[in-house]
Structure formats: structure tokens, C-alpha cells
UniProtKB/TrEMBL annotation:
InterPro entries: BBLN_eukaryota (IPR005374). Residues 15-26 have a biased composition (Acidic residues). Pfam families: UPF0184 (PF03670). It comes from the Eukaryota. This is Bublin coiled-coil protein. Signal peptide: none annotated. Residues 1-26, 66-104 are annotated as: Disordered.
């Protein structure tokens, strides 16, 4: 007798579970295990997302703090520079000369 796809020497009922209860019990435990693993993965991903959001917020705060500190530092340099001397850090808003831009 040939198998289900016409293959010789393979019985058509090979590997088929006759007892539906046995299949349901095995299948349910496998699905429960997979479901548990997916829940754990989901929990880990949620935790990573929270940490990422927290780090992103802290990074933005640090960048803003840095920006304010630079502006204050430039303001102090501007007021502390005697007239006629070059500034160490030209203001970003003021136009730079060719030499300051690095032009030829």
C-alpha cells in the first residue's frame, strides 16, 4: 500500500494520533509553555522600553543642561574679554569672518 502522497512503503496512518484526549493534553501543555515564554519575553521587552524611555529623557535633560552651561560660559567670556582682544569662542549667532570659518 502506498502512503498519503503516493509514497511506497509508508502507511497512510503513520504518526496519526488516534486518541484525541492525548493530543489535546499534549497540545495544551505545549501551548501553555509557549504562552508563558511569550509573556516573559513581553515583560522583558516592556522593561527595556521603559528603560529606553527613561534614558532618552535623561539624555535630553543632559543636553539641555549642557547647552545652558555653554551659553553661560560664553556670556562670562564675552563680559570678561577686554576690548580689542579676540574672543576664544565666537558666538554661534554672530557672523564669522573668513579666517574664523576656516576658509581660504
Amino acid at each position: 500500500m502506498s502512503g498519503p502522497n503516493g509514497d511506497p512503503n509508508i502507511p497512510s496512518d503513520d504518526g496519526i494520533i488516534e486518541d484525541e484526549d492525548e493530543f489535546n493534553e499534549e497540545g495544551n501543555t505545549e501551548y501553555a509553555a509557549i504562552n508563558t515564554m511569550l509573556d516573559q519575553i513581553n515583560s522583558c521587552l516592556d522593561d527595556l522600553e521603559e528603560r529606553n524611555d527613561s534614558l532618552n529623557g535623561k539624555l535630553h535633560e543632559l543636553l539641555e543642561s549642557n547647552r545652558q552651561a555653554r551659553q553661560e560660559f560664553r556670556g562670562q567670556l564675552t563680559t570678561a574679554t577686554p576690548p580689542g582682544e579676540e574672543k576664544l569662542f565666537p558666538d554661534q549667532d554672530s557672523p564669522a569672518t573668513e579666517g574664523e570659518k576656516g576658509g581660504e
